[in-house]
């Protein structure tokens, strides 16, 4: 990214938003990253993803907020301090 400068950042952001195919200019490093991001790993089970999505969307926003935020806070404050703190 240092070698590509602001143009590289623009290309990367555009590729992340619109996909590799949308880029007319494709630096090798950005191409490699976007290809990796756009390729579904072999171990992913699409049916399991769909079931998870259905389950997650079936919880009403009220209950989601009520359970997700406190549990996130518990994990945040339960983490041991970083070395040097």
Order of helices and strands: HHHH
Average pLDDT number? 89
DSSP helix fraction: 55-70%
Number of helices: 4
- The total count of strands amounts to 0
Q: Biggest β-sheet, characterized?
A: none
User: Strand portion, in percent?
Assistant: under 5%
- For the record, give the distance between the C-alpha atoms at the N and C termini, rounded to a whole number: 32 Å
Shape: extended
Poorly predicted residue ranges: none
- The radius of gyration over CA amounts to 20 Å
What is the SS-derived class? mainly alpha
Describe this protein's structure:
This protein is an all-alpha fold and 85 residues long. It has helices spanning 5-18, 28-38, 46-57, 61-78. The chain is extended.
Could you give a short description of this structure?
With 85 residues, this protein is mainly alpha-helical. It has helices spanning 5-18, 28-38, 46-57, 61-78.
Summary tags:
85 residues, mainly alpha
């Amino acid at each position: 990214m240092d070698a590509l400068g602001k143009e590289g950042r623009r290309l990367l952001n555009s590729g992340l938003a619109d996909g590799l195919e949308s880029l007319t200019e494709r630096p090798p490093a950005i191409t490699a990253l976007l290809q990796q991001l756009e390729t579904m790993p072999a171990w992913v089970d699409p049916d399991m993803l769909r079931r998870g999505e259905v389950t997650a969307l079936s919880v009403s926003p009220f209950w989601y907020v009520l359970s997700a935020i406190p549990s996130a806070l518990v994990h945040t404050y339960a983490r041991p301090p970083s070395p040097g703190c």
